[in-house]
UniProtKB/TrEMBL annotation:
One of its GO terms (molecular function) is protein-containing complex binding. One of its GO terms (cellular component) is plasma membrane. This is Ancillary SecYEG translocon subunit. Its main location: membrane. It is a single-pass type II membrane protein. Keywords: Cell membrane, Chaperone, Membrane, Transmembrane, Transmembrane helix.
Amino acid sequence: MAYSIEEEQDLDQLKRWWRENYKAIIAVVIIALIAVFGWRYWKNYQMSQSIQQSMQYEALIVSDNATNKQAFEVFTQENKGSTYSEFALLERAKDEVAAQHFGQAETLLQQAVNQAKDNVIKDIATLRLAAVQYQLKQYDRALKSLQGVQSNVWQGQKLQLQANIELAQGNKEAAKKDFQQALSLVDPLEKAMIQIQLNNLQ
């Protein structure tokens, strides 16, 4: 097939442009492919890691207490920053509270608060931390911890605990005010318990 002079010139220009730019074009294509396949690999890797963490967490929870204590440190260190690590810290703290080891529970809950990326988990850990500090009679620290609870979902429990702390400090008026505020924010059982405490403050 014969080309006209203009077509030959256009073809020469195209060839020249390709020689000058092909490296950059290939680089862009390769980078784009790496980005696509890299993202897919990362998502698959994350899913694989999540499944593995889930299985390890389940094994940790159902293990006997002695094995649990030995495995706990390894699991939380290897999975630090993951949701399962935060769950494990909360679960371990619950065991320590049940054993009335409030000092150990406080340490674990503080770790959970510091690590938590999810606001729901952070609020739960913070509430539990304040409750443990209340048990340890660290009233000022408990009140300070409660300031970190942000979600409206937990405001009833926050006010109820805050009132009990204030009551322990001898501040009956502040406690009464917080109990009254909490009444409209809690479930019927908690409401009945708060009402009993309010009646005792009359």
